[in-house]
Design brief:
24% helix; alpha/beta; 8 helices
């Protein structure tokens, strides 16, 4: 993704890795044959020829206003025990080196904003140092939905989620909380008293109970960072196809709402898992909306 400018706000994509995934693994109840019906418009950028697997990306967004440096979501992270998901397990990726090439060191990040607390969005919250998980961004405030944190804390304590869910909470959330770096905020939290530019959380509930995107606007230029509200362009044609989450009907409605909000407008959609360049616009197309990548 090329650098995006929204008035006085600069946004860069910090890549972790690209991957492919079977459509019936990503989207609950969807067969590969059903997904294959969309190959003709998705093209090789979004669907792997032959296998019909969906092409996707793991990345964070570096947001620089005139006053603050922000990371929105932090991918999978290195060295994490994720044996339940081989593509996330014990990674060794140069994520911090890529961040440095974009001009930012970990100590220079002011805010880390978490859309939700799934392992592939909080991994670089911490890094392994001398056998201990420590905050990667020691001078940052880690903004976490109060409701999201409490839901996961209680679900893990009561055993109402699968045991593997505890891993990311333990190694990527609690070390930040225990060191006093977490700030628990409401799902529509805005920086009104901290930033002259409009940067705020945007409730996009469904994938998790308190999943949030991010909205920013400067000089009438705006963007929505969708997090896991939408995973792949195929969902613009089929918003009823969703990744299994807390509330699938709500997750499907969020996609419809995003389409209605963005279609044929200047508002950019900054996606969490679309293939590179990941940023673009929702546009009308034959039969259904489509995603116009910024290099199209």
């Amino acid at each position: 993704m090329k650098t995006q400018l929204f008035g006085d706000i600069r946004v860069d994509r910090i890549s972790e890795f690209d991957f492919v995934i079977a459509p019936d693994y990503l989207l609950e109840g969807v067969t590969k044959e059903e997904a294959a019906e969309h190959e003709h418009w998705l093209g090789p950028r979004n669907m792997e020829a032959g296998t019909l697997n969906l092409r996707m990306s793991m990345h964070a967004y570096l947001i620089r206003t005139r006053h603050h440096t922000i990371l929105f979501d932090t991918c999978c992270g290195n060295d994490k025990e994720r044996s339940y998901e081989s593509t996330w397990h014990r990674l060794q990726n140069p994520f911090l080196e890529r961040l440095a090439r974009a001009g930012v060191l970990p100590e220079q990040v002011d805010f880390v904003m978490c859309s939700h607390l799934h392992a592939d969005h909080i991994g670089w919250n911490t890094r392994l140092l001398n056998g201990e998980w420590v905050p990667t961004f020691p001078n940052a405030r880690y903004l976490i939905s109060k409701g999201e944190f409490e839901w996961w804390r209680d679900a893990i304590e009561t055993g109402t989620v699968k045991p593997y869910r505890k891993l990311a909470f333990t190694d990527s959330v609690l070390p930040v909380v225990d060191r006093g770096l977490a700030a628990f905020v409401e799902d529509d939290y805005a920086f009104e008293n901290e930033m002259p530019d409009e940067v705020r959380y945007m409730p996009l509930h469904g994938h998790t109970r308190h999943h949030c995107g991010l909205y920013l606007c400067s000089q009438s230029h705006d963007a929505i960072f969708s997090g896991d509200a939408i995973h792949h362009p195929i969902q613009l044609a089929r918003p009823d196809w969703v990744n299994a989450g807390y509330d699938n009907p709500a997750a499907s409605q969020v996609i419809r709402d995003l389409i209605a909000r963005c279609i044929d407008t200047p508002t950019k959609l900054m996606t969490a898992h679309f293939a590179a360049p990941t940023a673009g616009s929702v546009v009308s197309g034959p039969g259904h909306p489509r995603f116009r990548f910024d290099d199209d």
